[in-house]
Amino acid sequence: MGILSAIFILTATAYADTDFNKACTEIVSCAEHVAGLLGHHYLMDNDVKGSAKSVGNLEISKDNAELLFSKMLYLNGFTRVPLGPKDTYEIRRIRDAKDSALPRYTADVRNAPALPRTWDLVSLVYKASHPEALSLIRKLLLNSTSPTVRMVASPLAGSMSVVAPAAELVGIYETIRDNDVKPNALALREEERQEERSRAHEGAKKQ
Q1: Quick one: three-class SS letters along the chain?
Q2: How far does CA 50 lie from the centroid of its chain?
Q3: Which of 5-9, 105-109, 174-178 has the lowest mean pLDDT?
Q4: Cα–Cα distance between 67 and 125 in angstroms, integer?
Q5: What is the 3-state secondary structure (H, E, C) of 153-174?
Q6: What is the separation of C-alpha 12 from the centre of its chain, rounded to a whole number of angstroms?
Q7: pLDDT tens digits, residue range 122-134?
Q8: For residue 183, how many other CB atoms are within 10 A of its CB?
């Protein structure tokens, strides 16, 4: 597998242009540009390809480089995964990165996670005050989140695990927190009815 390493020791002209459309014509050139701006290292194989275009005068700088680059990767189905050395990342397909050692955050109703301002894939473990509400919260989120998101509700453990882009996880956390309340009897009965219908459907399919 061919490996490309974007070393941060670049000439000034390599990242002098601040126009996003010129500096980030495709993923490899954008990785080189961001590496020069921020002192990062990026590893990727030869299959990492893709582009993004801005409309209007969008500048890329030290302040927004990680946000713009991670969003570009996300739009093309990729994400950054931190490696052991400081400021070193592997660029992987999102579908493969979901099962890798992602940055992990914890939260509860009183403590919000200190998430990065990027579109990198991260993992959140939310400790619920009302574990009996987790299954209902997961169903609510399934209707409002992107296909990238993976959620596992564990009422017995009293927690929910979520893998999602950090930028999207901000809203997901707020939804979980706001709905982490004791479910009323009507909601619980409706959940039971849905589970019964689902079991009946699965049974009919097997016959």
Answers
A1: CCEEEECCCCCHHHHCCCEHHHHCCCHHHHHHHHHHHHCCEEEEECCCCCCCCCCCCCECCCCCHHHHHHHHHHHCCEEEEECCCCCEEEEEEHHHHCCCCCCEEEECCCCCCCCCCCCCEEEEEEECCCHHHHHHHHHHHHCCCCCCCEEEEECCCCEEEEEEEHHHHHHHHHHHHHCCCCCCHHHHHHHHHHHHHHHHHHHHHHC
A2: 18
A3: 5-9
A4: 23
A5: EECCCCEEEEEEEHHHHHHHHH
A6: 32
A7: 999 999 999 999 9
A8: 18
C-alpha R_g of the chain:
21
* Other CB atoms within 10 Å distance of the CB of residue 123: 18
Per the structure block, which two tokens stand in for 49?
Answer: 């390809």
What pTM value is reported for the model?
0.79
Place of tokens 């009323």: 184
